Amino acid sequence: MTASKKDIAPGRQVVAGLFGVVQLALAFLAFWDLAHRPATQVQGPKPAWIPVILINGIGPLAYFYVHRNR
Q1: 9-30 pLDDT, tens digit each
Q2: Alpha helix locations (H) across the chain?
Q3: Residue ranges per structural domain of the chain
Q4: Nearest C-alpha neighbor of 25 from the set 70, 66, 64, 67
């Protein structure tokens, strides 16, 4: 049994929507950074980061965290 849109409180819909927008923005920025950063400045092979970035929520954060600590 799944909940329909009517079953979810409007406040939770807004929070879920904002989370989705932030997640998409972080993924876009991570992909943009990966595409424009030289391979010598990326830890590991660049193609290996693509599936990592696609992991919901944590993937883009992991990408930026690894590069911040470098």
Answers
A1: 889 999 999 999 999 999 999 9
A2: 10-36, 46-53, 58-68
A3: 12-68
A4: 64
Q: What is the spatial distance between Cα 59 and Cα 62, in angstroms, rounded to a whole number?
A: 5
Residues 46-63 pLDDT 10s: 999 999 999 988 999 999
CA distance 1 to 56: 24
Contacts 24+ apart (CB under 8 A), 29-34: 29/60, 30/59, 30/60, 30/63, 30/64, 33/63, 33/64, 33/67, 34/63
Question: And the tokens for 24?
Answer: 């998409």
- The answer to pTM > 0.85 is no
